[in-house]
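Input chain follows. Return structure tokens only.
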Amino acid sequence: MKLEILNHWWKERRVRKEFIPEIKRNLFYELIPYLNKKQIISLVGLRRVGKTTMLYQLIQYLIEKGVDPFHILYFSFDEEKEDLDEILGYYEKEILKKNLAKERVFLFLDEIQKLEKWQDKLKFLYDTHPKMKIIISGSASIDLIFHGKETLAGRIFYFYLDLLSFDEFLKFKNVSIEKIKKRPELWREEIETLVREYLEKPFPEIVNASGIFVKKYLKEGIVDRVIIKDIKELFEIRGFEVLEKLIKLIFLNPGLIMNLEQFSKELGISRQALSNYLYYLETTYLIRSAGNFRGSIRASSRKLRKYYPVHPCFSLAFNCEDKGKFIENLVLFLTKAKYYWREKEKEVDFVLENITPVEVKFKKEIKRQDFKYLEYFMKKFKCKKALMISKNTETKKGKIKIIPLWKFILK
């Protein structure tokens, strides 16, 4: 067992500096108040967004606040397949040397979804060790949310760590967001340059990396890893050829409206298999989908969903050349829209949950015809406002606010 190696703070009385960069993600500060709550903290998100780093930062925070390093246990199930009971038994006997059920101990479990029957084991620990604080992480929502909610109802808080926000990206670039926001027009050229960088590099480890390395990192370090390791282990898939074709199809065509009947025939698989593959990719955070809005936020068509990479960086890594589409993808990432709208030939890019339609027109000049579907939607659903994301134009047309991307991303 490698507990002494994984928990080097037992000997060194602190987390090594190379494990805890000074810059902290915004979510770190949101988690701090929950360290004193009884409920389990669950941290989920795509690979390489910084979940493990955040766990180490939380451990260092606890040590600085006076928690005995021997009362902090970390284990990762990403590579090791140890049994949790054996881990805790060894820790209690050889390290803590006290009754685990009676001590205030912080238990950090990384990539928890790879532990068999993890929900039942955590429920037992939660109920029998009242002083224990449990913090878990995982790279898939399938086990951590859907199964966990049923077993751990009332015992767990869920937090999603997304790719870097633009504010966080600037922080990692050592750029003062406060200075820029005070006089954004003064910094327009710099912002536009930074936005182009952000389109390619929204992960902490590659913020300052070169283009060739970035593409290799995204393809091999994230996409291949999710397919070959996470999806294989979670869903027991053996052949990856169709999955790889599907990923490439979506990454090269962000905003693809998926007709399951049509695309299942093209890919040579059943409709159900295609539906399953899309589900696997969404629950491991590689893609996002939007449903066709049908009049309320509770009603959207299950058919003809739109699929996007979770962030346009993946389209760029796979050499997508449709600039308008990956700007549209960026707006989806920024707004977290769950819907688009389509009625015959009419379409609006996104519909937010307050029924605000959003249209992306990333071009030099906005023309009269660019408003027609937006205005039709507003009239049909009696909208009070609408938003259009442009390249350069900033104005207002009735209830429609037009704002350039470089300024919208600051908000």
